[in-house]
């Protein structure tokens, strides 16, 4: 399988572990990811607040570039995924808007592509194929699979997994030999970029999520979004500092743990650059 | 909220009510105040008007109150409300339309909401300039605008040490094409920021 690959702006900074582990896991699963040449920012939540036209046109430039490649699009970032999928849906359903957006971008997007999250791409691979590659089952891990919001909502845009009780990440992690938990905050929002402007609000949102996971017996989180990762991993400390909690629960990208179970090089998976200590939990896997 | 004459606000702001419907494409009139959106909203605790009240205020034409409330900015666009609404109203999209309208009207967001707008502006400024979002540039600009020069400074060093901050932007070769998108969108939508 071959896809036009959209890394997203955090690919070499705050989300670098996700980018690195996605590439190496995809390669080992026989997925060919061809980076969209000269891709640009999708606009993220910032464009949502400014202008509808800008909000569709920023991702549309990338869709037009991918259409020239003749490949469906995939991206690891949940926010980029939603922006690209939303613009795609808007342009396919509304011909007038499509023409207007093409005028804005100066490029022609005809609406021939599908946009998929890397979670959907990997989760749609035959289970026996993935299972056959697992050499180091993730024994001892009790995972709270955290989907956040943009990966599964709104269902009219995303539509590959259940919006209230998604299972794609759970299923992938179970194939990798881990236990995943039934817990209530799978799709509760982490606050996203509000963490920059209103950290006092976001720590309260994070506290609810982390508390629920810990109470259900989780010893780690698995995520599929750089922003969810940043908030849960980096701001766990802010939560402890501002609310007096004492959380120390590591937050992994699902591609990191899948890669680990596949026996891939740990350095390639960048398991050591997290803010919350990962060693204690990783030593369970051996 | 002060007592209001609902009949007056509905007739005075009929254009506004219609405009929200047109720009959002949402059947706001269908809302019967079940409150499911607010029950599931993860940010409702911090809002001045929870989502169900925002929708009711649109129905009642309370334009000024809506354009200067913090709810439309604190909304994290997580779409829990949209997903659960029994009337199929995309509430998160209505919030977004109100945000855009507030920006167009030049209304300064109040209190906590002000910094949300400043962050969005800082983010988009780096995208317009480089074609991609530049994290350090966004934060520096945001700190300057919000007059909190050391905001997030404690995050900077640990991030840098972990290789999670780059001091230079990752530029798009044809960044002019992205700048064009901003310019054209502005031109077509008739000015604004």
UniProtKB/TrEMBL annotation, chain A:
The keyword Oxidoreductase applies. It comes from the Bacteria. Keywords: Oxidoreductase. The keyword Lyase does not apply. Pfam families: CCG (PF02754). GO terms for molecular function: oxidoreductase activity. Residues 3-84, 144-233 form the Cysteine-rich domain. This is Heterodisulfide reductase, subunit B. It comes from Pelotomaculum thermopropionicum (strain DSM 13744 / JCM 10971 / SI).
UniProtKB/TrEMBL annotation, chain B:
The keyword 4Fe-4S applies. It comes from the Bacteria. The keyword Metal-binding applies. Signal peptide: none annotated. Keywords: 4Fe-4S, Iron, Iron-sulfur, Metal-binding, Oxidoreductase. PROSITE patterns: 4FE4S_FER_1 (PS00198), 4FE4S_FER_2 (PS51379). Residues 21-52 form the 4Fe-4S ferredoxin-type domain. GO terms for molecular function: 4 iron, 4 sulfur cluster binding; metal ion binding; oxidoreductase activity. It comes from Pelotomaculum thermopropionicum (strain DSM 13744 / JCM 10971 / SI). This is Fe-S oxidoreductase. The lineage of its organism: Bacteria, Bacillati, Bacillota, Clostridia, Eubacteriales. GO terms for cellular component: plasma membrane. Pfam families: Fer4_8 (PF13183). InterPro entries: 4Fe4S_Fe-S-bd, 4Fe4S_Fe_S_CS, HdrC_iron-sulfur_subunit, Helical_ferredxn.
């Amino acid at each position: 399988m071959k896809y036009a690959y959209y890394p997203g702006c955090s690919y070499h900074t705050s989300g670098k572990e996700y980018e690195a582990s996605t590439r190496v896991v995809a390669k080992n699963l026989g997925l060919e990811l061809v980076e969209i040449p000269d891709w640009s920012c999708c606009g993220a939540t910032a464009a949502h607040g400014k202008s509808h036209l800008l909000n569709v046109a920023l991702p549309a430039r990338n869709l037009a570039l991918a259409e020239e490649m003749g490949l469906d699009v995939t991206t690891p970032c949940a926010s980029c995924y939603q922006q690209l999928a939303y613009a795609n849906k808007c342009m396919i359903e509304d011909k007038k808007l499509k023409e207007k957006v093409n005028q804005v971008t100066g490029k022609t997007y005809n609406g021939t592509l599908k946009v998929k999250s890397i979670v959907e791409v990997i989760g749609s691979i035959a289970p026996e194929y993935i299972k056959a590659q697992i050499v180091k089952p993730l024994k001892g891990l009790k995972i709270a699979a955290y989907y956040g919001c943009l990966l599964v909502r709104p269902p009219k845009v995303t539509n590959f997994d259940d919006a209230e009780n998604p299972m794609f990440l759970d299923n992938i992690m179970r194939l990798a030999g881990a236990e995943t938990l039934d817990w209530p905050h799978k799709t509760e929002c982490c606050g996203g970029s509000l963490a920059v402007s209103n950290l006092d609000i976001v720590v309260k949102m994070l506290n609810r999520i982390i508390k629920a996971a810990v109470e259900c017996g989780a010893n780690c989180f698995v995520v599929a979004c750089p922003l969810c990762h940043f908030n849960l991993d980096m701001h766990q400390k802010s939560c402890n500092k501002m609310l007096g909690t004492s959380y120390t629960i590591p937050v992994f990208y699902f591609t990191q743990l899948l890669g680990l179970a596949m026996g891939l090089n740990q350095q390639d998976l960048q398991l050591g650059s997290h803010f919350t200590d990962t060693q204690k939990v990783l030593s369970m896997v051996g | 909220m002060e007592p209001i004459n609902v009949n007056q606000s509905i007739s005075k702001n009929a254009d506004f009510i219609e405009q929200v419907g047109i720009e959002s494409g949402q059947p706001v009139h269908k809302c019967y105040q079940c409150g499911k959106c607010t029950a599931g909203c993860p940010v409702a605790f911090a809002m001045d008007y929870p989502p169900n009240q925002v929708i009711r205020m649109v129905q009642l034409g309370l334009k000024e109150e809506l354009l200067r409330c913090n709810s439309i900015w604190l909304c994290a666009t997580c779409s829990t409300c949209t997903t659960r609404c029994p009337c199929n109203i995309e509430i998160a999209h209505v919030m977004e339309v109100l945000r855009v309208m507030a920006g167009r009207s030049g209304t300064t967001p109040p209190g906590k909401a002000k910094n949300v707008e400043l962050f969005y502006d800082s983010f988009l400024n780096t995208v317009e300039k480089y074609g991609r979002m530049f994290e350090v540039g966004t934060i520096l600009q945001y700190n300057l605008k919000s007059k909190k020069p050391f905001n997030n400074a404690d995050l900077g060093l640990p991030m840098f040490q972990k290789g999670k901050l780059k001091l230079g932007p990752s530029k798009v070769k044809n960044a002019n094409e992205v700048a064009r998108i901003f310019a054209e969108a502005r031109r077509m939508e008739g000015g604004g920021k």
